Amino acid sequence: MTMHRRSFLMTGAALAAAAMAPRFAAAQAAAGPFKLPPLPYAPNALEPHIDAQTMEIHHGRHHQAFINNLNNAAKQHSQLASQPIENVLARLGDVPEAVRTMVRNSAGGHANHSMFWQIMGPGGGEPDGDVNAAIQRDFGGISTLQSRFNDAGGRVFGSGWVFVTVDKEGKLAIESRPNQDTPLMDGKRVLLGNDVWEHAYYLKYQNRRPEYLKNWWNTVNWKVIGERYAAAKEGKLGI
Ligand code: MN
Question: How many A from CA of 55 to the centre of ligand 1?
Answer without folding.
Answer: 10
